[in-house]
Specification:
- 2 copies of one chain form a homodimer.
- Chain A has 8 helices and 11 strands.
- By secondary structure, the first copy, chain A, is an alpha/beta fold.
- Chain A folds into 2 domains: about 120 residues, Rossmann fold; about 100 residues, Orthogonal Bundle (Arc Repressor Mutant, subunit A).
- The first copy, chain A, has a 5-stranded parallel β-sheet with strand order 2-1-3-4-5, sandwiched between helices. The first copy, chain A, has a 4-stranded antiparallel β-sheet with strand order 6-7-8-9, sandwiched between helices. Chain A has a two-stranded antiparallel sheet with strand order 10-11.
- In chain A, helix 4 links the parallel strand 4 and strand 5.
- The first copy, chain A, is elongated, with a radius of gyration of 20 Å.
- At the A-B interface, helix 1, helix 5 and helix 7 of A face helix 1, helix 5 and helix 7 of B.
- Chain A binds a DNA duplex through helix 6 and helix 8.
Amino acid sequence: MRILVVEDEPKTLHAIQQGLEENLYEVDIAYDGLIARQLAMRNNYSLIITDIIMPGLNGFVLSRELRESGIQTPILMLTALGETEDKVNGFDSGADQYLVKPFQFVELLARVRSLTKRGSSTLMTHQTLKFEGLEMNLDTKVVTRDGQVIELTAREFTLLEYMMRNQGRVLSKVQLAENVWDIGFDTGTNFVEVYINYLRKKIDKNFDTKLIHTVFGMGYVLKKE
Amino acid sequence: MRILVVEDEPKTLHAIQQGLEENLYEVDIAYDGLIARQLAMRNNYSLIITDIIMPGLNGFVLSRELRESGIQTPILMLTALGETEDKVNGFDSGADQYLVKPFQFVELLARVRSLTKRGSSTLMTHQTLKFEGLEMNLDTKVVTRDGQVIELTAREFTLLEYMMRNQGRVLSKVQLAENVWDIGFDTGTNFVEVYINYLRKKIDKNFDTKLIHTVFGMGYVLKKE
DNA sequence: CTTCAACTACTAAAATTCTCATAGTTTTAA
DNA sequence: TTAAAACTATGAGAATTTTAGTAGTTGAAG
């Protein structure tokens, strides 16, 4: 099982290489997109892992060019939070999976395993949550409403994700604290309200129909009216 | 099974009451230490849960007075981070367990269960990690070196705890990142080094013998020399 | 219909966490 | 022995998370 890893940051590259080799994969490495393209054309890899931001040829272009050359090798793309613009543009570049840095190594391994299983790659659809024009991509961590990208912090993302998974259900502040913060009830402070406020500013403020609603004395719901 | 809950913050009090009642405990409540004392004297509770900071009579004094009156009811004391001074002073007030706020409700329940099991309460010793004058109380989250209290943030505490549990072992930065941050390797940044630096300032700087050592190219160790 | 108490919204600031740039140190290799 | 490369220390600041206080709403009771 031979894997190509493309990454311009030496430390990250070697960490990935070492980790994969410890798991008995054969690993080739490339520091930039141009070399990666050469290697990928010449060899028949089982998987290509590539960063987005690179000198020479970025991950999207690499991915697209390989696909255009008829190379079907699964591609796992590594992204960093904050490369949002690029990410949105590159969704259709031909990559099979995205993994947002920083990540656990075990998670990378899991993806490598599933992507190298024959036939399974095409079955993997990007995991997203949707509700009324609001869309969360759980792989890339990109959130959009009506196509417009919304930047969320880690905590805001987790909160919104929980509300999305329970859309239409009224969630008490204790419930939110338990599930989003892993906190029972401190309730010396009003952090849930503060974060609801943050979310509203980002998700509802510039739109006509509001999605986050207060149920007095009960909690908050994500719903249409 | 009857439990007395003492807490001056109404929201917290009612949240605890409700949670316990849902788990089929009978709950009495008191808003301050004086009423709590009266109730505890009159009734034979299976457990008393009390906050430290309260009007009238604080948790420590309450605890001590009850013990002096011959009342052996197990006491679970709730503390908030930052009440360090008090906590250190109150270790021997007679409380059986400490729980630092904020906490998960399931954790409170677990403690309630174990404290209400006959005979088990005396077996519960405070869980602490020790190494060369350095002491971490995992219940109260109080850290001391040679008796001197050291204030740590949550992240610093987790890092030190991990190093204490692996004292003498060289821990690589990847290993620390995995276990303390749940991060595989991002390594675009040097956050581990930064936090080692924070810890050193608090734990080693004002002491002659240093406990945190760098092993060049390998990582960090907690050891004597 | 008022008034009160409980609850929620919002603003500002404090604390913590994380990032980045620079300087210093150690090892390796010529 | 010296220079380069790799690694580590440290300070400063940006971003995020959390706390705290005040103002504004809502629902209920009289």
